[in-house]
Structures are given as structure tokens and as C-alpha cells.
Amino acid sequence: MDVSKHYWIDVAVQTPAHSQIGGLLSYRCAFEVQPGHLVRVPLGQRELLGVVWAISDSAPAGMPEKAVRDAAGVLEGLAPLDSAWRQLVQFSAQYYQRSLGEVALSALPPQLRDLSSEQLARRLKKQNTERTVHTQTGPALSEEQQAVLAQMTSAPGPFLLFGSTGSGKTEVYLQAVERMLQADPQAQALLMVPEINLTPQLEERVQARFGAEAVVSMHSGMTPAQRLKGWLAAHAGHARIVLGTRMAIFASMPHLKLIVVDEEHDPSYKQQEGARYSARDLAVYRGKLQNAQVLLASATPSLESWHHSRPAAEGGRYLRLHMPSRIGTGLLPKVRRVDMNHQAKKAVLSAPLVAALQERVERGEQCMLLLNRRGYAPVLHCADCGWKSECKHCSAFRVFHKIDRTLRCHHCGMTERVPRACPACGNADIAPIGRGTEQLEEHLGELLAHVKRPDGTPIRIARIDADTTRLKGALESQLAQVHSGEVDILVGTQMIAKGHDFRRITLVAAINPDTALFSSDFRAPERLFALLMQAAGRAGRDARQSASSEMWVQTFHPTHPLFEALKKHDYPAFAASELAERTAADLPPISHQALLRADARSQDVAQGLLNAARETLEAQLSADPATAELVMQVSLYPAVPMSMQRVADVERAQMLLESPHRMALQKVLWHLHGVLHQLRSAPEHKGVIRWLVDVDPQAI
Ligand code: ADP
Ligand code: ZN
Ligand code: ZN
């Protein structure tokens, strides 16, 4: 064999978690490849798909040449993943503390792994044609929309579009795409949404504007074949617009020129397993990398983005753009607070709200009731002995679902028939405490049974939540009923508050939003405010009805500043007061956080690993003058149980790391990684099931 024809490649492959942080596997290669090519390589007994990361003419240092195995082959016909894509993956792996191979491979469509070059060639022949973009003209822009687009041409960004619900943000995205396509016939745009199933309307609007051919979707609800097809079209540059959820941030788009992150505040942009990346934050990074414009948009921006878009003179890095008015003569709904202290004790719905609902339905208008808890009641209770419907496996109560008379744990899934009598004392009189959407729907039905629609037919109440939408297509058909006016009152969880362009709803009510005011999670008020503003945004979207539209809030704390700000639709005031509190308490976005988590059969074992890691790390860092400063810059807190302490018989513990310096925190996390690898093999930590790091966690 002519050895001079060989060279060596470093390949990113998916290996078990934590085993290869930053690492790549080396192979000998006898065929021609470039960085970014997909290759098949042997690992143990298996053959895996990997991404060529680097090429060199010499064997890897410290490794006998014979020990290096041969790469099996390259996936032919597929252009290499470009350097921007590889850099994005590399950065994500490093920043979120996962292996390069894991991030790279999970960013590719799963079907690619099992495809031979011949099969791939067949797929490509289907679709290897330029796709035409037909741009339909959009409506004439409002002054605010024009101003925003003008600013986008005169500054590099990133931009934060702070625009009211119904101010025409989507139209701005569409026209920004149109301009981009005019300026550069090859250009590609990425439109990201938090949950694609909730926004079929956006898909329709984008396709109607640019033609179905030019648009591909990317989200987890697609079949593997659909995902592969869309991915290939984007990779080849044929798909001009990719519409997707957070995973789409890793789409290979060689001509990417514009990234839009719609509802950028939405927590769904943060991945909650594997590499726990924030697609919103990566959008900003990727924009810089590929010289693409980045537009984050929301009516209630995340405090992070709001803070980043403060004036440049104060250190702001994003440019804030404003669209305060609704399109046309549309007004935002009037916010009414109902003081529940003055209502009948235990009343679920206040008398004035019931009257208002009746009046609206009789006029032929729609109403929406928001209650962020599904099921019939969150807990069953025995008044005699104090028994409650706890889950045996989790630190949570099992929820009573009346429809099939079950007690269900929403965390581990454990489901049982409702007992006939108290399992502890035999008392037959066990009762639900609190209420969920199922009970609210039932209760409304009783209260408003006599109410008729304008045509004399009886009132129709419907419910949309995770329980009613389990089956494929259920959500779509239920939404269609709301849109067509078949439903008079819609009851639901936060699912119904997001994004929908309901044209007939004139009244929205939040039934019991108070719990979030006193949560231990410092982000709870931010989430609540966003949810209520979003919910309010569902009312009066038809300008003709907007003047009489209302957002009701039933609360025991009507003078709470959060509700005061809501009443004025004053997000900036709310954000200012929240940011002042965060600043005082040194919380994000002023500081940066990371969580180290450990799972075990007991809290002691889980916390044991975390506390040992902290002590070892602090000793290690202090001992070396080069790292001693890090100990001062990063606070490591003692291990504590997670707020949801036990799930499916697994005890969960966490340790918080906090620092005003992002880089210092990153460095500490890297050291921590090494420490954990050492500790993990010690006998006293054998009981740890897993550990993981969550950088910029969304809930602590
Ligand atoms: P947002 O995304 O801010 O909630 P949309 O872009 O969905 O707002 O706009 C709200 C409604 O106004 C939509 O029905 C949209 O078609 C319409 N609209 C948006 N911009 C214009 C415009 N310039 N002229 C007329 N109608 C518009
Ligand atoms: Zn459980
Ligand atoms: Zn009992």
C-alpha cells in the first residue's frame, strides 16, 4: 500500500455523554475529504456517521500509527458543512459544556445516519432544482413598520423589535425577507418561532407570500423523511426560507442573511436536555458569524434582551426598535382587575365576570378564560385524616382527572383509578382541592347553561390544553372551531395565550394568576407579565371590536405593581422595576448563572458529589496563582435539593454558580468538568446516576 496517499482526519462522532468534551477521534483516511464532509468511521464494533473537523498529514501525536483505524467512506454528493456551521457547533459545544460530536450529530437530521451514498443520490435527484420564489405584494406598511424597516437598513443590528401584539411584527419579518431576496437572489432567511404547532397561521402566511416551494419547516413534529428533505433543501441553498423551532438554529444554511426570532422571550427557545442551548442567544452569535442580520421580536421582551438593548452609551449592544400601536385603529384591551377579597368566599368566577361573559356571548362575541393548570383539581384531600393524593415516586401531588376518574402524576406519569375512599383512613368523603381547566369548563357550563347565542342556540364552551390535544390533529381542529365561531367561550392553559390571531375574541380573563407573584423562581413575575400581555393580545384583534375589548384579572392583590403595569400595558415600567430588583440582588441579566445538577437515589449521594466538586475545585483553583482569581470572581453555592426534588424515584440536587463575568464562569465550568471526571470514579460517588451542567438556566 502506498502510505504517502494516506492522511489523517479528526472526526466528530457521537459518543456517550461527557466522554469526549472538546475531543475528536482520529482516523486514517485514504479517500479525498474536506473539513465538513460526512464520513463513516468505525468505533468499537460499530460504524458511525461523523463530521470531518480537521485534516492533517501527520499521525496524531502520541499515538502509534498502527493504532489509528481507517475511515470507512464519505457520504458522496453532499457538499461539506461550511466553516460557519462548524464554528457554530464548536462554540455551542464549548459554551454549553457538551461534546462536539454530540452537538454536531444532533444538529443533523437523524435519517442521514443510516443513508448510503446511493440512497442519498436518489433523494437529491428528487429535489435538486432551484426553487422559485414568487413574492406576492404585502399590504402598504404603517408608518411604524416603515420606520423599523428603514432602521434595519441603516444599522447592522442585532435588533430588538419591541412591538405590541397586533402591531404588525409578522408583516415586518415578511417584508424584511422580501428585501433580502431582492438584494441578493441567493440569500436565505431563518424564521424562528417558539412552537410551530401553535402557529400554523405563520406557516400559511409565509407560504402565501413567497410560494410553498421556497419554504421548508424544521421542528420535532415532522417525520424523519420530511426532516431530511427540508434539511437537504436548506443545505443546498434551494430552500430560501426556513421556518422552525429552536432546533432550526443549527440548520445548514450557506447563504443565511437574516435570522428572525419571533416571541424571543419564550422559554421554549431554551433546550432542556442534552446540550441545553438557548436558540435565541445562538441566533445572535450565528448572525455575527455569518454576517446575517438578526431581529429578535416580542411585545414582552426577555429582560436579557431588554437589558442588552439599553442605549449604546450605557453599554447596550442591540438596537431597540419600537412599534407601540396596533394596526389600523385597533386599541389594546382595557384591563380590569377584580378584587377577589370582595367576592363570595371560594368563588371561582366572580359575579361581574360571569355577567360580562353572558353579555358577550349573547352579543355573539367570543371569550377566553385562562387557567394555568390542567386536570380537574390539583389534589384530592381527606378532611378526616389529612391524606393527600401524593405521588409515591415524586415530590408532587397527583392531579385528579374527572373525565376518566384517575389520579395522574404530571411528572412521572403514574396513573391510578381514583380510590373510592381515603386510602389512609377509609373515609368515603374525599374531596378535590383547588381547580384545573377541566373543572372550570364544567363549572362554566353549569353557571351559563341558560345562556343563548344571538341565533337562539345554546352556548358552546370548549377547552384546549395538553389533555384535549394529545391526538395528532386535535389542536388544529379545535383551533379551527374557535376561528370559525363555533365556540363561544374557550377555556385553556397558556397554550391558548400564545400567538394565535383569533379575530372574534373580545374578552380574555385570567382566573387565578396570583401564585406566580410569590414564587421562589425569580423569573416568575417576568413570565406572568409576558403571559398576561400575550393573553390580552388575543382580545380585540379585529379593529372594529377593539374599543370594547377587555382583559380581566381576578386577583387577591389588585394593587400589585405587576397588575398596575399591566393595566397601562406598560412593559417598560414593569421591566425597569424588575431590572432594578435584579440589579439589587445581583441576578441575571446583571450576573451570569450556571447550575451543576446531580441525580441519585438519595439526596445525600447527589449533594455529596456536588459539594465534593465544589471543595475540590476551590482548593485546586486557589492553589494555582494563574487561577486563584477565579475563586473571587465566581460564587459557588452549597448544594441544595431542586425545587422539584424527586421525580420517578430519582432525587435531584443542584449547585448554583454565579458571576458578574461570563468568561470567568466559563473557565470555572471547564475546571469543574475535569474535577467531576475524577470524582465520579471514587467509590463514595458511585451512586450518582448522572450529572449535568446547565449554562444560563431558565429556572433555578
Ligand atoms: P403581530 O405579529 O405584531 O401580532 P401581525 O403582523 O400578525 O401582528 O399583524 C396583525 C394583523 O394586521 C394581521 O392580520 C396582519 O395581516 C395585519 N397587518 C399587518 N400589517 C399591516 C399593514 N401594514 N396593513 C394592513 N394590515 C396589516
Ligand atoms: Zn410521579
Ligand atoms: Zn383519610
Automatic annotation (TrEMBL):
Top enzyme category: isomerase
Domain of life of the source: Bacteria
Binding site for Zn(2+) 1: 382, 385, 422, 425
EC numbers, comma separated: 5.6.2.4
Cellular-component GO terms for this entry: primosome complex
Catalytic activity annotation: Couples ATP hydrolysis with the unwinding of duplex DNA by translocating in the 3'-5' direction; ATP + H2O = ADP + phosphate + H(+)
InterPro entries in the cross-refs: DEAD/DEAH_box_helicase_dom, Helicase_ATP-bd, Helicase_C-like, P-loop_NTPase, PriA, PriA_3primeBD, PriA_3primeBD_sf, PriA_C
Cofactor: Zn(2+)
One Gene Ontology biological process: DNA recombination
Subunit record text: Component of the replication restart primosome.
PANTHER family for this protein: PRIMOSOMAL PROTEIN N
Record family assignment: Belongs to the helicase family. PriA subfamily.
Name listed for the protein in its UniProt record: Replication restart protein PriA
Species name: Limnohabitans planktonicus II-D5
Encoding gene (name): priA
